[in-house]
Structure formats: structure tokens, C-alpha cells
Write a structure and sequence with these properties.
By secondary structure, the chain is α/β, with parallel strands linked by helices. It has one domain: TIM Barrel (Alpha-Beta Barrel). 36% of the residues lie in helices and 15% in strands. It has an 8-stranded parallel beta barrel.
């Protein structure tokens, strides 16, 4: 199948005892993760500039894994990048490119980044800075929900990220269009009451999709899939909920998942049936 399903991030301490064994060393997490998934979205690169040594280490330990790498915040939130920072980031992902294991660089913009001529021009400049690298873009602001603009994204050099998120004021959900060379889906959960008001950041992503909701997502993914490579990442990461939902969706698509970690079922199954 041309659908690959995985998680947004893998190195979470609160996954110990749920997805991971309780005593697993952090260095071994990526290897354990690769038992169940062959694709992962790396998010640490948003907060700190990644390094090629990390990429080489991952490729040595999990050679069959494909990687999506989230762009550093200087490109999406600060929007004050220099040529030096572009060079550093590209060098960091080159090992994935050389091994043909790079899915894309993910540019996820904040809700404060609204549709405007200046911001479209910024996207054009950003795309040119990363020319030659597969790149996908996620908009949080509903102001970008303009079909004419979204369908022109490929001309700018981007594939569109389709998202599932709470239907709250100002947030773009979907829009479930296939734009660009690949299909890319991010699932953030539906915690509408904690999306804006929360004490800790993880609360926004503390959500477990029901089987009915996963069935709905499956239908939406099938609708946009076509003949393109399609990547689906679960970002509802708190306590391994995204890992459980990712395994469930893999099963719905007829993909083998082996034996689901007992900790996931012990922690979350009851809630699935409430």
C-alpha cells in the first residue's frame, strides 16, 4: 500500500509503561518504535537546530525507517532566518536525503500567521530557500482555507498538510484536498476545551480517537489518496494515545501491526468503550 502511518515524535517519557516498557533507555526508543512503524515525524528540530550526526545515528539504528523533519521555529514562527540557518538545516537532513529516507521537511505555521500578500510572498521566498527538498506546509489559521490559494501551493513548491483538530474559532481543519507530490496528514486530537486554555502544552494533545472517529478519518484519507504516497501522523501524543490510534488505523487499512503493547490496552482500552 502507498499509505504509511506513524507518530509525531517518539521520544516521550510518558510513553514509558504504555507504549514502551517501563525501564527502556531513551537511546533504545527509536529501535523499539521501529517494531511497529516504518515512518516517524521528528519534532525536536523545531526547538533546536538539528545536526547531521543525529540523522546518521538514526539511519544506522533503524535503516528501514523514513523520516519527516519539522522545520525549526526560526522559519515558521520567528520568520527571521538567514542563509546560514538554511544551510545548517539542509546539512542536517542531507543524510536522510542521501539514503532516500526523507519524507519531507514540515513547515507548520502558527495560528497568528494569516493569509495576506506579504505572507504568500514569504512562503514563496521560503520555498525557494529549500528548493530541491520535498516540503509540506501546515496552516493553523482558517484564513488560509481558500481553495484557489491552496490549489496553487504546488506552484509554490509545497504539498499541503491536511489536519484533524478541534473545530474551534479560527483553526483550519482539513481541508482534505490533495495538493502537491504527496499526501500528508497530521492528527492533533479534538480537545476543543483545552486547545486554547491549558496549563501545560501537552493538554492540547491529550485525546484518544474512538474507533468510529478513526473510521471517519480512514474515509477522508482514502478520498484524497489517489495514487500518491500518503503519510499519516498522529500528534495526540499524551501517554501514547497517538501510538495506539496509529496502530488501530494501520489495522483498519489491513496492515499488520503484530502484538500491540499491553501497556497501551491496559491504560486506554477502557476509555475506547465508554
Amino acid at each position: 500500500m502507498n499509505i504509511r502511518i506513524g507518530c509525531s515524535g517518539f521520544s516521550y517519557k510518558d510513553w514509558k509503561g504504555t507504549f514502551y516498557p517501563s525501564n527502556i533507555p531513551e537511546r533504545e526508543m527509536i529501535t523499539y518504535y521501529s517494531r511497529y512503524f516504518d515512518v516517524v515525524e521528528l519534532n525536536y528540530s523545531f526547538h533546536s537546530m538539528p545536526h547531521p550526526h543525529t540523522a546518521k545515528s538514526f539511519l544506522e539504528r533503524v535503516p528501514r525507517m523514513r523520516f519527516s523533519v519539522k522545520a525549526n521555529r526560526v522559519f515558521t514562527h520567528d520568520r527571521s532566518y538567514t542563509d546560514r540557518e538554511v544551510s545548517l538545516f539542509i546539512k542536517a537532513v542531507e543524510p536522510y536525503m542521501e539514503a532516500n529516507k526523507l519524507v519531507a521537511v514540515l513547515f507548520q505555521f502558527p495560528q497568528s500567521f494569516h493569509f495576506s500578500e506579504d505572507n504568500v510572498e514569504y512562503l514563496r521566498r521560503l520555498s525557494k530557500s529549500f528548493e530541491g527538498i520535498d516540503r509540506v506546509v501546515e496552516f493553523r489559521s482558517r484564513s488560509f482555507g481558500r481553495r484557489d490559494f491552496l490549489e496553487s501551493l504546488q506552484e509554490l513548491g509545497f504539498s499541503l498538510v491536511n489536519t484533524d483538530a478541534p473545530r474551534v474559532k479560527g483553526i483550519l481543519v482539513g481541508p482534505w484536498l490533495s495538493v502537491g507530490d504527496i499526501n500528508y496528514v497530521r492528527l492533533h486530537g479534538r480537545s476543543s476545551n483545552r486547545w486554547f486554555e491549558h496549563e501545560k502544552a501537552y493538554e492540547r494533545y491529550d485525546y484518544l480517537y474512538s474507533e468510529e472517529e478513526l473510521g471517519e478519518i480512514k474515509r477522508r484519507v482514502e478520498k484524497i489518496r489517489g495514487g500518491k504516497e500518503t503519510y499519516v501522523f498522529f500528534n495526540n501524543h499524551y501517554r501514547g494515545k497517538g501510538a495506539l490510534n496509529a496502530l488501530q488505523l494501520k489495522e483498519m487499512f489491513g496492515q499488520s501491526v503484530g502484538s500491540i503493547p499491553k501497556g497501551l490496552y491496559a491504560t486506554h482500552t477502557k476509555r475506547l468503550w465508554e
